[in-house]
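Long-time lurker. I teach an intro course on protein structure, and each term I like to show students one example going from raw sequence to a predicted 3D structure in token notation. This year I'd like something fresh instead of my usual example. Would anyone be willing to generate the tokens for the chain below so I can use it in lecture? Attribution to the forum is fine with me.
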Amino acid sequence: MRYLFSAFVALSALPVFAADLPKFKTQEIDTGLKIGYAVITADIDGDKKLDIVVVDQHKIVWYQNPGKADSAWKKHVILDGKTRPDNVCIAAIDIDADGLPELVVGAAWKPFDTANPAQLVWLKRGKVVTDEWTMHELPCDEPTVHRVRCFDIDGDGKPEIVHVPLMGRGSSAKGLWTDGKPVRVVALKVPAKEPEKKENWKTQVLSEELNVCHNFWPLFSGTHVFGILVTSYDGVHIIAREKDKWVTTKTGEGNQANPKGNRGASEIKMSNVGVNKPVIATIEPWHGNQVVTYTPPKEAGKLWERHVIDEQLRWGHGVWFADLDGDGANELVIGVRDDPNPKMGDTFQERRGVRVYKCTDGKGAKWERTILDDGGVAVEDLTVADLDGDGKPDIIAVGRATGNCKIYWNQSAR
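-- Reply from a regular --
Happy to contribute to a lecture. Here you go:
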């Protein structure tokens, strides 16, 4: 845990000023998604503007950035029906070193099939970027591939592909999904030659200790990743490289109130909220109803301190940090997937959508909530990026039950 704090000291030396959150202007760019499982931004066409890429149930699509707010985003199909259903996750990586991103997609999404391998592929563009891309298989022995990201884990300046399945092989509902093998966190090294050949890719297991994972996030020191935060039924853990091996260490307890059901944590990000003030944000328990932050422990060797900052939600399903108002401290963006269900005991009225939280104590324990979208999008995933190059982060969310993709344009005056 000492690595978590020391690495963020250099990144966090920024003043904190009180400021109201900016206004946002909403633009809905698609209403025809089947299941918008995931969304990322990447410069797909090489025009120096970030485009939006969405993983839909059977398709991978991208929306071409028109360069300014309120203009039409043209939709293009990258892949349609070539993977084993469903598509579930995506990451961008430059595999062939041409300066343009290829895409890695996790597919064959069957969350309760813990016996058969899922599917991991990478997609390569043709001569014309708007044509359908070609698909190439990657090694994948794990069931329930669920999240994939690309970053440099060995310090050679080149990113690896890291993926985290949902369940361990052989786990079952009867055994509360913890009776099989633990989840294997796997990294794939991009081959120097002929990446189109599956056999040229080499795999490395980084961890095999956690049960029922959900999401993960790299921890950077400069440009190098020194560790990976992972959420699971077991809580919040960091997988960190120590000399020649990767070690899994518990960082946060998670919500363990229901040992025979969903527990621990699911979504996760880490950032800063002020001078030397790192903070971790999660959704708890796993697929849960709490927005939680973690702040560094007061005593070395202890778990990070847990703070519940919101319980008025059903099924949080998206977490991001960004400095939305330009005051040097990051706000927390949360996506909510479902509406309140009185039959499940919900007494609150706040609906599915997007919420923003501003830290009020400069430490990460106390936050003030603003509801940005109350009911307009059933968030399956969200991300934050400056889409129009004005220096202000914009929010992009995709909906599951609502089948839509929405941009929330940052209208701050900075």
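Some talking points for your students: The longest strand covers residues 202-210. The chain has a mean pLDDT of 93.
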